[in-house]
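Customer escalation, tier 2.

The customer says the design service returned an amino acid string that "doesn't look like it belongs to this structure." They asked us to rerun it and document both sides in this ticket. The original structure tokens are below, unchanged.
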């Protein structure tokens, strides 16, 4: 298995604000609630954080037409 949960916990303080600022996520979620998900390490929070992260990257690429360059943090950072 890929340790996605561990990665989200390790990068959560950086990921949370980036995911919260994405256009697709900002339309449907409160930014403070999104950032909070990425700071908490519970199983439910990690599942929700992963879902929002995946949606943010998907929306950036498929809806906004962004071309992914670099890692997840770079891709999300370009859209902010």
């Amino acid at each position: 298995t890929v340790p996605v949960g561990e990665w989200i916990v390790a990068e959560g303080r950086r990921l949370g604000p980036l995911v919260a600022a994405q256009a697709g996520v900002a339309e449907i979620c409160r930014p403070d609630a999104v950032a909070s998900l990425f700071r908490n390490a519970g199983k439910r929070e990690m599942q929700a954080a992963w879902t929002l992260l995946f949606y943010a990257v998907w929306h950036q690429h498929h809806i906004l037409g962004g071309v992914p360059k670099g890692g997840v943090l770079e891709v999300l950072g370009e859209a902010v």
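Tier 2 assessment: The sequence is consistent with the input. The chain has a mean pLDDT of 91. The two ends are 31 Å apart (CA to CA). Sent an explanation to the customer and offered a walkthrough call.
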